[in-house]
Amino acid sequence: MSDPGKAEKLGRRLVDGLLSAVLPEKEKVPAETVRDVLAKPGACALFLFERSRMGDVLLQTPVLANLKASFPGLRLCAVARGYNAPALAEHPDLERLLVFPDAGLGKPGQLLKFWREFRRPWDVVFVMSAGGASLTSALLARLSGARLIAGPGTEIFGKPYSRIFYSWESQPIPARGSRVDANLRILGALGVRIGSRRLRAGFSSSGEAKAWDFAQSLGGSGPIAAIHPGGAAHLSGRIAAPELFASVAKSLNKAGVRVVAVKGPNEAESVSRLKALAGLELPVAALDLDGLKAFFSMARLLVSNDGGTMHLAAAMGASVLALFSATDPEVWASEGVVPVDLRGRDWRAAEIEVTGLALKLIEPRAPAAS
Questions:
Q1: What's the pLDDT tens digit per position in 202-220?
Q2: What is the DSSP string of 204-228?
């Protein structure tokens, strides 16, 4: 039986040799050159989010907003995988979204269609690597026909391949500290002014109609609070005790709030348990991602675990009460998110704090000072 470790090392050596032989090192330019190109009338920048998960993608959206604020005439486009593209669909700062097929080489027809839309003389391609360094993204950038390629310094297979692929590179994204601030470092290194740190997303008129129909079906007139007790399978270690979510649901319901459960794929069990523990027949927002984004724009509060749903609601302007059971809120909480650090705490010890914060956040927001 072959050794997978040896096969992987052999594959890396082959890739290393091919890249070194085929791709000469990219000519380097200073930050001023990148800024000049971005400021050119009609310039178009492409962002590659090929590897990032939904939450990682949303945490990078402040880069789009700040770049657009500094270069109002700049046209922004993006590439995302099929599984995370819905998070960027209808984004207010994007002119176009290209979807890289999840099947890759397994679906040559889809790949050919993508290639025809992708291959063009972009002015600047930004390789976004929040989800980790991606050789696919780096190769796409080199093959895109872009005039300039920019991104944070990264290592692929333990080697600084960003020197081969990038015209300009910033410092690598640090593992510690706010992920939003870390993502914005590329703009700081370019000398671009950084203003808003809020995540952004958008929705279609169809998504708005679905969300509106669901909101109307709730009846009543109280504020809407959504509770998402579950999470993706790979985030199972981040899920807080269901009893804590049930306690929040009961407290909000008692206060006249219209409480809704949010159910993602394969999360029927967590929602059923929430209902049973709370003793409430909660309506379930089983909407697609487009409809869910629109619904979060109508809701006043989301209570959830750390994960993509948390970032989605924050991007739509809802207040978010996020329960961090295994991850660091200083890294993953963004603007609009009120974090509760549950690491090393029993849910009973946090119950009063969490329910109190939920009741406070659901209160009507004071109008902005004129």
A1: 999 999 999 999 999 999 9
A2: -HHHHHHHHHHHHHT-S-SPEEEEE
